[in-house]
């Protein structure tokens, strides 16, 4: 289980060891937040809502859309005040879990921490939009020959998805290594 993998008892350290452990996490998370917010500010200034720029014909557009819900537009039909409070509270709880997992991570789990840092930065980036705008700015519009269309997303979404994918792959690798170790015994 991913949480079990990250939550191994980490030795208590202080000073330079702690700084080294968390500096990369902070740098990755802050970089994600800055790039995410800068890209959204640019989109908001450069394009009117629903305006698009074709980047790669029949494959990729830059578009200015807003998502009041979550991934794939889920929860967008819930009343606005309840939805906003629910999504902000859920994000804050998720951020607390991420910080807990980071604090419990073993110093050797660098890739896990970097993956969690991507998720953390992405969650904060989208949280800033929710608090500031009540919705999230999305702008990457991927499609194939106008037949297959992926919902628009942003830098924060891409980092969250990448972080989760990395965590799943790391967990699968750990499980396969454990299974291979049992087969030798």
Structure commentary:
The protein is of the alpha+beta class. The protein has one domain (about 20-145, about 155-180). It is built from five helices and four strands; from the N terminus they run ααββααββα. It has a four-stranded antiparallel β-sheet with strand order 1-2-3-4. A hairpin with a 3-residue loop joins strand 1 and strand 2 (about 60-65). Helix 2 runs parallel beside helix 4 (about 110-135), helix 3 packs antiparallel against helix 4 and helix 4 (about 110-135) runs antiparallel to helix 5. The longest helix is centred in the first third of the chain and has 31 residues, at about 15-45. The mean pLDDT is about 90.
End-to-end separation: 22 Å
Helix and strand succession?
HHEEHHEEH
Shape: globular
What structural class do the secondary elements suggest?
alpha+beta
Oligomer: single chain
Total helix count? 5
Mean pLDDT: 88
- Strand proportion, as a percent range, falls in 5-15%
**How many beta strands in the DSSP annotation?**
4
Count up the domains: 1
Main sheet strand line-up: 1-2-3-4
**Which value, in Å, is the CA radius of gyration?**
19 Å
Largest sheet: 4 strands, antiparallel
Uncertain stretches: none
Q: Which range best describes the helical content: under 10%, 10-25%, 25-40%, 40-55%, 55-70% or over 70%? A: 55-70%
Question: Layout of SSEs?
Answer:
Elements: H1 2-6, H2 16-46, E1 52-56, E2 60-67, H3 80-104, H4 110-133, E3 136-144, E4 148-149, H5 155-184
Antiparallel strand pairs: 1-2, 2-3, 3-4
Give the key terms.
185 residues, alpha+beta, four-stranded antiparallel sheet
């Amino acid at each position: 289980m991913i949480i079990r993998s990250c939550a191994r008892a980490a030795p208590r350290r202080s000073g330079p060891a702690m700084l080294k452990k968390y500096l990369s996490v902070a740098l990755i998370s802050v970089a994600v937040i800055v790039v995410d917010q800068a890209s959204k500010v640019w989109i908001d200034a450069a394009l009117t809502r629903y305006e698009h720029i074709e980047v790669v014909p029949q494959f990729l557009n830059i578009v200015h859309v807003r998502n009041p819900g979550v991934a794939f537009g889920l929860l967008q039909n819930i009343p606005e005040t309840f939805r906003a409070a629910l999504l902000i509270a859920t994000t804050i709880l998720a951020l607390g879990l991420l910080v807990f997992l980071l604090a419990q991570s073993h110093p050797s789990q660098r890739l896990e921490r970097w993956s969690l840092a991507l998720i953390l930065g992405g969650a904060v980036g989208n949280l800033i939009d929710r608090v500031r705008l009540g919705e999230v700015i999305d702008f990457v519009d991927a499609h194939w020959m106008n037949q297959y269309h992926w919902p628009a997303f942003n830098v924060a979404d891409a980092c969250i998805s990448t972080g989760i994918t990395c965590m799943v792959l790391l967990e699968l690798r750990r499980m396969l290594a454990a299974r291979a170790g049992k087969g030798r015994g």
